[in-house]
Structure formats: structure tokens, C-alpha cells
Amino acid sequence: MNFFHKNHKLPKKTNLTVKLGLILLIILGYLGNYFKLPLFFGVDFLFGSIAVLIIVELYGFIWGTIAALIVSSHTYFLWHHPYAVAIFTLEAMFVGIMLKRHRLQNIVLLNGIYWLLIGMPLVVLFYGLVLNVGTTQTVLVMMKQSINGFLNALIANLIISYLPIRQLLKLSKNYKKISFQQTIFNLLVAFILLPALILTIFNGQHILTIVEKDIQKELNAATIPLVNNLQFWYQKHLYAVEELAKIAAQIPDNEISTLQQSTLVMKKAFSSFLKVYVTDASGNIIAAEPALNEFGESLLNLNISDKYGWSKLAKELQPQITDIHRDRASTAPYIGIMVPIVKDNSFQGIAYASLSIAKLGKLRQLNTQIKEIETILVDSKEYIIAESYSEVTTEKKFDLLETGKVEYNEDIFKWQPTTPGMPKMKRWKKSLYGKKIQISDDLPWNLYVTLPTAPYIDFLETSYIKNLVTMQIIALVGLIISVLVSKRLVAPVLTLTQVT
């Protein structure tokens, strides 16, 4: 009984079933890569090489190499680089050549030799030097791909050995049956490696679930005080303008100087206000501080009845806050708080205070104690009002889809960049978890709170590397034990057959 059986040859006359079998295996291989098993951010287990190695064994290394090229092409769309295609194609080529030219006929051992001598060094070359994804990520990919390849080779070997695939495909029957020694080897390797892999995957998924819950808790914990602070900020400024509106409603028309003094006092009390003014019912400014705009033109008697939100305010008689805009009263982009002046239940004008977005820097101080948290405050049209780590001086729209893609899960979203040519692992490294929340019904601004994924990915990568290194050791020890045990168990039987 020979542990290393000879590789068979295909019949010269190839029928339709053989051709269809090849096509079917290639399709199954592609689907094995398409329906991947995600471990975590940008790291996946693939199963396409199972079908590829079956093709290598049954159809030879030429068709096996062609199949590997086709099947592994999906990794370009999955990981956004061509180097995995090269690594997986060389895997099939190496195993196929070794099966054809050497006495060693076990694809599990050949696959292990490939990853040890060629595959793992290529990962270091392509990922570590060419893609420059970082040492930790390179080690992770090296461990993951070698374990993944070895597992797929084991599954392919079990399928070839114990399923009637040759009969189904009507391939040559001139091949040696699986020896008792190889049967023991296959079973021992499977019983050692598969449970370890399953435990590793489940443990990794459990850790990933915990990490995602922690991220959600961090975002929720950061959002609540930020929203409360912004509501307090708004109410404080709104109250000041409401008081000015009450004063304007009580002052007689011939005491404009008193009203002017009130606007001056409020402007000094709130340095964040860019301009403060009061209008009559027709929209003419009757008191203003400062009295001139940026060009030195007087604001007094300037009619703003066509102003943003004027008609709505006059009709509903409810305070409003505007989105970022410009007008004749101010050429710089600003936000306005408008409060109607109501006397005897009739509209008498507005009290108005504008806030320059360039002077809203204090809102950046409303950050949380979590250093990694970034906050972006936008108006109802998604124009940025304030950011936690930079000043806003011009009108700029906040658009997550402009520079990346967004996945929503209830009120939490995941964003990652879509930079052309950037590997998927790097994209995830630069990705963000975030939460969007409206401040209140009275303040229709939206607050984006984001948290970078990188620190959590570092933790997951380190955890997975430890698990995969353990699996790598288990696989190597399992191979050695399987070979030794299978030989020892078969030796008495082989001796008995020689005697009889």
C-alpha cells in the first residue's frame, strides 16, 4: 500500500461530460470566492481553491492553472488589487507541476509546501512592500491565506478521495485506489484542523460582535452630552433674541434710540453674534448693531422682507433659525435666529441676530472626553456649521458619499473611502463608524459623531494573528503526527500482507 499514489492521466478522447464537469468546477470555484466568509474588516476566508485543486488533480496543471486564474480574478474586485490573483494562480501551478513530475502525490502536503516556501514570502513581498499595508496586516494576511489554502487543500483531498467525482465526470478509471495509510492521514488531519478552525472563526466573530457593540456604546455615550450642550447653546442665544423682540414690542415708535441701545447691549453680551438688528412690519431695518455692513454701507432702512424665511415667520409667528446663507445685510456666510415682534396679536417686524460660521469655533469645544471622536454639525441642507478639528470659514457641504460608501445599520453607519487602487484592508483601516442625530425639533440641525475604526482593527488583527499562529502550529504538528501515526498503524498490516 503506497501512501503516495501516482497521478492518473486523462483519456485522450474527451467527451461532453468531462468538458461540462470542468466548466461546472470553474463556476463553483468562482462562487466559492464570491460567497466568502468574512472574518472582520476586509479579511475573508475564500473557498474557490477547493474546486481549483480538484481540477488540478483531475484535469492536470494546465487546466488547473487556467481555472485558478479565472476563479481568483474575483479577488481583484473583492480586495482591489491583483496580487492575490498571482498568489492563488501560482498555488495551482505549483501543486499541478509537483503532481505531474514527482512521486509525492498528496495535494495537502504539496499545498503546505507551497505556502511555506512560496506563498507566504509572496504575501510579504506584495502586501508588505508593494501595497505597504503595514507589518501587522501583512502577518495577518500571511497567516490567514496559508491556513485558508491548507484547509481548502484538505477539503479538496477529501472530496477527491471519498466522493465518486471521477465516475460522475466519466474520467479515467485507471487510477490507484486510496491507500489505508492515506485514509488514516486524511482523517487525522481533518479531525485535528477542522475543529481548531471552527473554534477560531467563532471566537473571532464573537470578538467582532463585542467590538461593534463597544463602538455603538461609545457613539451613544458621546452623542448625548453633545446634543444637550448644543440645545443649551441654542436656547441661550434664542432667549436673548426673544428678549430683544419683547423690548421692541414695548418701545414706542418714537424711541428708536432706546431700541438701538438695546441692540448694542445684546451685541456686546454675545460676542458670537455677527449682527443684531430689528425691523418694522414692512421689513425695513430700524435699529442695528453694527450699523454698517462689510462694505461700509448703512443697514438702517434696508428692506429685508425678501429675506430667507421672512414670509414663513410673518405667517406662523414662531421663532426660526435659518440655514447657512448670505444676503445684503452680510456678505459673509452666516446663520440667523429670527424672532417675530408681536404686539396685540399682530406681526410688527422681527428681531434678528446673525452668527458667522467663522465665529462658531466655540462649538468645536463641545467635544467629548474621547480623543478619537470627531463631530460635525450641519444645517438642514447638510452645509457644515462647525467641525471638531478644523475651522469652517466658507460654505461647504458635508457629503459622505462624495468620498466613500456608507452602510447603515439602524442609526449607526459605517463609512469607508473609495479611493481607486486602495486595497480593501487599507480602506477599512481608514474607515469610520458614525451616528447621525437631529438636535431637536426647534433646532433642525444634524450632528454627525464619528469614531475611527483603526484602533479596533488593530486589536482584532492582533487577536486573530495569535489564533492563526496557534492554528499554524496545530496544522504542522498535526501533519507530522498524521504521517507518523498512519505509517505506524499501516506497518503491521503491510508486514502481514508480505508474509501471506
Based on Cα principal axes, name the global outline: rod-shaped
* Portion in beta strands: 15-25%
Q: Termini distance?
A: 15 Å
- Low-pLDDT residue intervals, each spanning 5 or more residues: 1-11
Give the tally of structural domains: 2
What's the story with the biggest beta sheet?
A: 6 strands, antiparallel
| Strand elements, count | 14
Radius of gyration: 35 Å
CATH homolog superfamily of the largest domain: PAS domain
**Series of H and E elements:** HEEHHHHHHHHHEEHEEEEEEHEEHEEH
CATH architecture of the largest domain: 2-Layer Sandwich
Structural class: alpha+beta
From the structure above, extract its key features.
single chain, 500 residues, alpha+beta, Arp2/3 complex 21 kDa subunit ARPC3, Beta-Lactamase, six-stranded antiparallel beta sheet, 14 strands
Please describe what this structure looks like.
This protein is an alpha+beta fold. The protein has two domains: 1-178, Arp2/3 complex 21 kDa subunit ARPC3 (Orthogonal Bundle); 231-456, 2-Layer Sandwich (Beta-Lactamase), CATH 3.30.450. It has helices at 16-34, 48-59, 61-72, 74-79, 83-101, 107-130, 135-162, 165-169, 180-250, 256-269, 310-316, 400-403, 424-429, 454-499, and strands spanning 37-40, 43-45, 273-279, 285-289, 320-321, 325-327, 330-343, 346-356, 374-378, 384-387, 404-409, 412-417, 432-438, 446-452. Strands 3, 4, 5, 6, 7 and 8 form a six-stranded antiparallel β-sheet that branches. A six-stranded antiparallel β-sheet has the order 10-9-14-13-12-11. Helix 1 (16-34) runs parallel beside helix 3. The longest helix has 71 residues, at 180-250. Mean pLDDT is 83; it is low at 1-11.
